[in-house]
Design a protein that fits this description.
binds zinc ion, 2 strands, 11 helices
């Protein structure tokens, strides 16, 4: 590349890194935005960073379950992980393998049962999440289901509950997914095993802090009526 003056004619070497190959593959898409050297994504041919960025992102999946999830009841960091998981974009070992990133061991690091680490396994089937799920279910007084991300969102959405109750259950469930993902990351990257009782306490603490910050809102007062433990 250092000896070449035109990036458009550069061909990615077979032994280069995966992200260089990925960047290189975007050139084909970017070239299609031009006709006779004219930028075609805007009517007047003026280059638009926003248009280009949105084209690179492609069509975004809208969360049909937004009514129960995208509310201020859930912490932003929890929302972000759910948003990624709903699009199957968390970098699980299965996803890393799919995008050709070498993984030394594809097994789930939380249960050590030799199961391929997928989202469905981590957030539904894995024996590690059973204790947090049961712990927060007892706390809520509602049994959370052993389901994947989308199935859980649909399940909450379809319950015959008040809207504020759905948002509250989604907030607790979202915190559980976030802390399960965090436990997985700490195990892999820091070699630290997070205690499941600690996880349950952390979920409770974060949900309470969130509601505390909303103490004077109408929504939080409705929650206090519905959930006596707050
Ligand atoms: Zn597991």
């Amino acid at each position: 590349m250092r000896t070449e003056s035109n990036i458009w004619q550069h061909k990615a070497p077979a032994d280069c890194s995966w992200y260089w190959k990925k960047l290189h593959s975007l050139k084909g898409l970017m070239e299609s935005w031009y006709q006779n050297r004219e930028y075609t994504l805007t009517p007047n041919g003026a280059y638009s960073m926003t248009k280009s960025y949105n084209m690179l992102l492609g069509e975004q999946v809208r969360m049909q379950e937004s009514g129960s999830v995208w509310t201020t009841m859930m912490q932003p960091k929890h929302l972000f992980i759910i948003w990624l998981a709903n699009q199957d974009r968390l970098l699980t070992k299965k996803r890393l393998l799919r995008i050709k990133i070498p993984v030394a061991n594809g097994s789930c690091s939380l249960c050590d049962q030799g199961r391929l680490e997928t989202q469905a396994h981590l957030f539904a089937e894995c024996s590690w999440i059973t204790a947090p799920r049961n712990g927060v279910s007892i706390w809520l007084g509602i049994q959370l289901q052993e389901k994947g991300i989308r199935e859980s969102l649909h399940w909450i959405q379809r319950r015959n509950w008040k809207q504020v109750q759905k948002e509250m259950v989604a907030a607790v469930w979202g915190a559980m997914i976030y802390h399960t993902w965090q436990a997985r990351n700490w195990r892999i990257f820091r070699n630290i095993t997070i205690n499941r009782e600690f996880t349950i306490a952390k979920i409770q603490q974060e949900v309470k802090i969130r509601l505390d910050s909303m103490r004077n809102t109408c929504r939080a007062r409705k929650c206090q009526y519905l959930f006596t433990w707050i």
